[in-house]
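Box 4.2: Ligand-aware structure prediction
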Amino acid sequence: MNKIDELIKLDNKKYQTKYRKVLKMINQFDKICVFRHIRPDFDAIGSQLGLATFIKDNFPNKDVKVVGENHITLTPNCFPYMDEVDDSWFDNDFLAIVVDTSEKKRISDDRYKKAKYLIKVDHHPNVKPYGNIKIVDEYSPAAGEMVAKMCLSFKNCVLTKEAARWMYIALAGDSNRFKFSTTTPTTFAVAKQLLETGFDIGEVHRKMYNKKMDSLEVTRYVLNNFKVSEHGVAYYILNDEQLKKFNLRPEQGKDNINLFDGLEGIKIWVSITEDKDENVYRVSIRSAITPIDKIATKYRGGGHECASGAKLKKYSEIDKLIKDLDNLLI
Ligand code: AMP
């Protein structure tokens, strides 16, 4: 492994005891499954694949799996399909490592419940702690950064180009390409260390942000139909009819949310998408500065101060949500 940057070493000091325990557990178990949250994003799958690849590279005799639903567009454009694992695999002792997932009910794949030992590595507020070892830093920009720092701390291990590439995707994704205020000098130190393994950053970004021509039709619809509240909440609604018209899945409803990022006068921006299967409206909320996570929690969600998700049970809740967000800006 290359020399570890001093900033990373300094940051890692407070986790040394936990890291040692994680390494002990990885050594102890022959079977390891890496989990992450439902409705995954770059950070969820990137940190999951990064950690799984790192373990496989350094402990070739371990049986390592990655599970959870595939992403509607990122798989297979950017990520490989998850492992299809028979239930019987989970009947023998295995170690579960869950990345990027704040609470148990958001873990994609319930079979984590059968794990003999559970490790959580996450960067959401630790509201509902779980796991035998909890490595949580809510100020970290991405679970991918935490996974990378932990792996870099393991002596006598290698960080391959492939493992580093997944971790980089996680880090670039959740820091919004290093734009969020959670990005620190250590973040750049981690990115530098990952990049030094030799992957092509241009190729990575092309795969991450590649768009289909059809998606412009949805963007056109959003630009023609968004609304703005009195104090600067921009929001758009995609109902089932529009999803069908544009041939979209509900999880793609938020794809246009960042159109409003950086727009003068817009301080909070929101996408609201009907999900007929679950009989809810899925909400994604982003904010420039004002913390919005408490409002997300009020509407059955949660997340980070400036990027959260929520669910509405009926259409009439939309006005209430927007009013609550607007009130934050008075
Ligand atoms: P999204 O708008 O779905 O991209 O989610 C933004 C952030 O909020 C991500 O970090 C999610 O993991 C988190 N998040 C979304 N929904 C929830 C929820 N119901 N509970 C906790 N965190 C959530």
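In the box above, the bound molecule is adenosine monophosphate. The mean pLDDT is 97.
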